[in-house]
């Protein structure tokens, strides 16, 4: 799909959905700190929230790997 290989769209999604809400801190950052602290008290909805807000960054990582592999095979 063309949209999954578009840098601009993926970065825009990372900066909006991935980090929203922004105040008092990015949501994904707060969840990461919670997980790093032992994830005590996290419910299934919190894990789903981590997946939802982390998915744009998974897409970005996927795009980086695809571009890296395609550039190595062209050489």
- Tell me, briefly, the overall form: elongated
* Poorly predicted regions: none
Find the structural class using helix and strand composition.
Answer: mainly alpha
Total number of strands: 0
SS strand fraction:
under 5%
Overall pLDDT confidence? 89
Give helix and strand order, one letter per element, not per position: HHH
Tell me the Rg in angstroms.
Answer: 15 Å
Secondary structure tally, helices = 3
User: How many strands, what sense, and barrel or not for the largest sheet?
Assistant: none
Estimate the helix proportion, in percent: 55-70%
- Straight-line N-to-C gap: 24 Å
Number of domains: 1
Transmembrane segments: 7-24, 50-69
Protein name: RND transporter
Keywords: Membrane, Transmembrane, Transmembrane helix
Question: What can you see in these coordinates?
Answer:
- The chain has helices at residues 7-16, 27-36, 44-74.
- With 75 residues, the chain is mostly helical.
- The protein has one domain (3-74).
- Helix 2 (27-36) packs across helix 3.
- The longest helix is centred in the last third of the chain and has 31 residues, at 44-74.
- The chain is elongated and about 50 Å long.
- Keywords: Membrane, Transmembrane, Transmembrane helix.
- The chain crosses the membrane at residues 7-24, 50-69.
- This is RND transporter.
